[in-house]
């Protein structure tokens, strides 16, 4: 299958939101409860307009259909879309800070077909071109396997409380040097 990888643009927002919701609901079932998934969708997951404006968010299309999205950031926010209240948009220093891998989601019908790897390789390449020597991310439990396979190292699980509901995430990092 041939995939088209491109930079996300503002008019992609609605399609990205739909993809995020479908991915989170279908691919997270064996890791999270329904209430955890819905809280994450309502308050954490979602489009990050800064990533689109910075041209560091990418989409993958197959036959004109959006099947994956993900990006990297040179901003301090580690995770969360526009509606996540705990955001910090200041810029990072590539010499001392880690670039952030952000908001990876794949359509369930296209899962485990290399789309996440395509996106992650593009993000790694772009972060390196900007001089970053280190990457970090906050993985959802379904994403840990991909990131581990791509050389990211796990730290201990952390819990974030969202709308009174605890949700487990896994901090991960990778050296680029």
Over the alpha carbons, how many angstroms does the gyration radius reach?
A: 15 Å
CATH topology, what is it called?
Aminopeptidase
Question: What's the domain count?
Answer: 1
SS class: alpha+beta
Residue stretches low in confidence (pLDDT < 50, at least 5 long) are none
InterPro entries: Acyl_CoA_acyltransferase (IPR016181), Bact_Acetyltransf (IPR050832), GNAT_dom (IPR000182)
Pfam families: Acetyltransf_1 (PF00583)
Domain N-acetyltransferase: 3-177
Organism: Brunnivagina elsteri CCALA 953
Task: Describe this entry's structure for a reader.
By secondary structure, the protein is α+β, with helices and mostly antiparallel strands. It has one domain (4-175): 3-Layer(aba) Sandwich (Aminopeptidase), CATH 3.40.630. 29% of the residues lie in helices and 29% in strands. It has five helices and eight strands, in the order βαααβββαβαβββ. It has helices at 13-27, 34-43, 49-53, 115-129, 144-149, and strands spanning 4-7, 57-62, 65-73, 99-106, 134-139, 153-154, 158-162, 165-175. Strands 1, 2, 3, 4, 5, 6, 7 and 8 form an eight-stranded mixed beta sheet that branches. A hairpin with a 2-residue loop joins β7 and β8 (165-175). α1 runs antiparallel to α2 (34-43). The longest helix has 15 residues, at 13-27. The radius of gyration is 15 Å and the shape is globular. The chain starts with a strand and ends with a strand. The model has no long low-confidence stretch (mean pLDDT 94). GO terms for molecular function: acyltransferase activity, transferring groups other than amino-acyl groups. This is GNAT family N-acetyltransferase. Keywords: Acyltransferase, Transferase. Residues 3-177 form the N-acetyltransferase domain. Pfam families: Acetyltransf_1.
């Amino acid at each position: 299958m041939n995939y088209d990888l491109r930079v996300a643009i503002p008019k992609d927002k609605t399609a990205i939101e739909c993809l995020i919701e479908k991915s989170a609901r279908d691919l997270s079932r064996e890791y999270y409860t329904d209430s955890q998934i819905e809280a994450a969708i309502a308050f954490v997951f979602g489009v990050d307009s800064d990533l689109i404006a910075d041209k560091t968010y990418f989409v993958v299309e197959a036959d004109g259909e959006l099947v994956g999205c993900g990006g990297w950031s040179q901003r301090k926010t580690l995770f969360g879309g526009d509606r996540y209240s705990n955001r910090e948009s200041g810029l990072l220093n590539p010499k001392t800070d880690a670039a952030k891998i952000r908001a990876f989601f794949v359509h369930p019908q296209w899962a485990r077909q290399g789309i996440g790897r395509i996106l992650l390789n593009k993000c790694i390449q772009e972060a390196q071109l900007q001089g970053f020597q280190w990457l970090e991310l906050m993985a959802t439990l379904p994403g840990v396997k991909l990131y581990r396979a791509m050389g990211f190292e796990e730290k201990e699980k952390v819990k974030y409380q969202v709308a009174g509901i605890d949700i487990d995430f896994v901090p991960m990092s990778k050296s680029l040097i």
